[in-house]
Amino acid sequence: MNHYALTIIGRDHPGIVSRVTEILYRRGCNIADSSCSILGGQFAMLLIISQPEEESGEDLLHYFAPLEEENLSVFLRTLRPGGEIRLHLQGELCMVSVYGSDKPGIVYRVARELGEREINITDLNTKLIGSEQRPVYVMMLEAMLPAGMSVKDLEQAMAAVAGELQVDISVRAINPVEL
Amino acid sequence: MAVRDILLYPDPRLKMVCDTVPEGQDLGPLIQDLLDTMYEAGHSVGVAAPQIGVPLRVVVVDVSGSKLGRKNNHGCLVMVNPEILEREGSMTMREGCMSVPDYTGNVTRAEEVLVQFHDRGGTGRVIRAGGFEAVAIQHEIDHLDGYLFLDRVSSLKTDLFRRKQR
């Protein structure tokens, strides 16, 4: 069975999900995983889909052509076998909150620090809040620490970045509990 | 007695409202099975009777062995016909459930609860629980009414940015 990564983005308006999923339904596609949200004024859909018919990506993309005419951008990528399977990550999960006056480079600087330490970002959201005169940038990210690294270690690393960027950064452990 | 298999959603028995236990009913074997099942799972801090297929209002909770509950707990709690009388405060935890494997979500619950129940010996008790123990109790009692944590999950993103839209 072929798996595809499907990305659709366009000016937000009601009915986008319905239009997209109707096409998927009619082609016999399953939505295996998805994340959809409004980013700015754009509605963004990220989907991992499977299609038992074994149509080629190009053929499948053809059915989304009407969406392009409605000003939605559609991108389809055929995944290699196994590309749809989530890696099993092991390590301590933590949440990093970063906020401060808006300036370029906040995400990059924090992400670089994490990347250099082999810390895996599993979720990342950013938003511009505050007033137009005094915009505040907020970033929340979830990350999986590699074995042997503690939340304290990350806290120390982030303290240096916070000083350099003049933003506030807090790190806290997320303990998923099974009940 | 026995470690029982935990029912997995979508087993319909997980969505049923459980029956009140009539006075005088012998719950010994059921309670022992619940305790054995909870302790065998190792990381689990609570099990509700419907999770092993018994539609009765019985739960067991023990957070004393977990890092989060170690400092503030009532030890091993066996709760028959539990009822939450008061709720105070709110806290959010990343919850998972043995009946819904491979998924966790943020759930906001009361930080402190006053719970009335009958214990293993049939004695009526009222306790005030807080923190992780309170969360565990609420999670298990939810099972008795057919609620899974999935019914209570709140989105991280929505929570964080909801204020902006006011």
Automatic annotation (TrEMBL), chain A:
Transmembrane segments: none annotated. Gene3D superfamilies: 3.30.70.260. Residues 5-81, 95-176 form the ACT domain. It comes from the Bacteria. This is Amino acid-binding protein. PANTHER family: UPF0237 PROTEIN MJ1558. SUPFAM superfamilies: ACT-like (SSF55021). Coiled coil: none annotated. The lineage of its organism: Bacteria, Pseudomonadati, Thermodesulfobacteriota, Desulfuromonadia, Desulfuromonadales. InterPro entries: ACT-like_dom_sf, ACT_dom, UPF0237/GcvR_regulator.
TrEMBL record, chain B:
The active site is at 140. Gene3D superfamilies: Peptide deformylase (3.90.45.10). The gene is def. Belongs to the polypeptide deformylase family. This is Peptide deformylase. One of its GO terms (molecular function) is peptide deformylase activity. Its EC number is 3.5.1.88. It is an enzyme of class 3 (hydrolase). GO terms for biological process: translation. It comes from Geothermobacter hydrogeniphilus. It holds the Pfam family Pep_deformylase. Keywords: Hydrolase, Iron, Metal-binding, Protein biosynthesis. Removes the formyl group from the N-terminal Met of newly synthesized proteins. Requires at least a dipeptide for an efficient rate of reaction. N-terminal L-methionine is a prerequisite for activity but the enzyme has broad specificity at other positions. CDD domains: Pep_deformylase. Its cofactor is Fe(2+). PANTHER family: PEPTIDE DEFORMYLASE. SUPFAM superfamilies: Peptide deformylase. Transmembrane segments: none annotated. Fe cation binds at residues 97, 139, 143. InterPro entries: Peptide_deformylase, Peptide_deformylase_sf. It catalyses: N-terminal N-formyl-L-methionyl-[peptide] + H2O = N-terminal L-methionyl-[peptide] + formate. Binds 1 Fe(2+) ion.
